[in-house]
Amino acid sequence: MSLRLLFRRQYAVRSADDTHIFDQIRSYKKPWINWKTCGVFFGLGCYLQYSEAIFEAYEIATAVPQDPLLPVQLTYKLKQLPMYQKLTHPSNSDNWTKYTSWENLENFESVMEKLNLGLEEGKLTHTLHKAGGIVIKPITFFNHSANEGVAFIHTGYRLCGYPFLVHGGMIATILNEQFKRNACLSELTSSPLKDDFMVKRLVINYKAPTVANQFLVVKTSTKESIDNKNIILKSVMENEKGKRLVTSEAILEDTGRASQRLAQSETQTSKKKRFGMF
């Protein structure tokens, strides 16, 4: 056999059942994100920012109507909530008392007036009692036998941090007020004055975004009573449909500040009466 026949190139024939390697390669598709699309979106973003179209649309969407009937409408909406109706008409075994403001503590009207704390509009609601804030006074139901409270607070769009979401600091303020009010109403503490209590430790866990322009339901209960001066409370904030939004826990201490102010006020009043200054 000659060398030419030995090194001759061998040819192969592909059958119909064989698969060619190029048949398995997928066709290449160009990505839709390229310099052209980036340029278009960049220009659109610059235009919207310059024209403030997004801000104007958000302002229109969150506009607060200057309607004198708005408090009446919100009150009607509140009374239609299932939880509100349940607490308004409790069973015979439940003992729920209704309070219509932050400072209204049933038999302590004269005390609150002497302390100048504002019986009808408390510190919180007096500042935020406007359109877009807390339009109607918070409603609180308290069970004195179980030391549990349920509050209903309507939060408007003016309390937002991020668009359409209630600011986290506002939520903390509401919880702080609710904890102090429940502490002064509790049978496990000695002081009936809300401003006697100071929140020593507050832990807040945000479970879900809190959308504005709705009623928030704050359920507070006693976790542990250390003594008649210190108490541990826990709270759950829900939306109108019962979805859990925030869980919180706080340690409160009875400082006696409001009681001291009350005592000083009564002492000064008695001195003025003694010397005929009234």
TrEMBL record:
Question: Polar residues: which segments have biased composition?
Answer: 257-268
Protein name per UniProt? Thioesterase domain-containing protein
What domain of life does the native source organism fall in? Eukaryota
Q: What is the lineage of its organism?
A: Eukaryota, Fungi, Dikarya, Ascomycota, Saccharomycotina
- Which residue intervals make up region (Disordered)? 257-278
InterPro entries from the xrefs?
A: HotDog_dom_sf, PTE-AB_protein
Leader sequence range is: none
